[in-house]
Amino acid sequence: MLIGELSRQTGVNTHQLRYYEAQGLIEPARGSSGYREYGTDDVVTVTQIRRLLEAGLSTQEIGFLLPCATGSAPDLEPCPELLDTLRARLHGLDDRIDTLARSRETLADYISVTEKRVSTYLRSHDAGPPEPAAT
């Protein structure tokens, strides 16, 4: 099948399929006309790539893990360094979550303090304009 058909079957844009090829994730054959030709295995591989991307893995990590993937879910077979790679990615996600949580807390504090100042400001100005000074 040509790249357009692979795109239709997988729901992945052709430019993304070319990117996967450039990253070494898929390797289409070349027909006599020079067009990329894909097989049914490529449909499964593209599905695996999409699901691994959804898990937050980079294309470099996926390239490392793809030989361990079976089925479209994909299931990952025990391969050398597989768990180390997955654990490292999970640790990185945990670090980012911690950073985001701290940022969220700091931002919430800024909002809280600012809202209190707005309330104080509004209360002080609800009394009307100040009385003119006696002369």
TrEMBL record:
Taxonomically, which superkingdom? Bacteria
Note the coiled coil stretches, chain numbering: none
Is this entry keyworded DNA-binding?
yes
What keywords tag this UniProt record? DNA-binding
Where's the HTH merR-type domain? 1-68
Q: Give any Pfam family that matches.
A: MerR_1
Q: What is this protein called?
A: MerR family transcriptional regulator
Taxonomy of origin reads: Bacteria, Bacillati, Actinomycetota, Actinomycetes, Micromonosporales
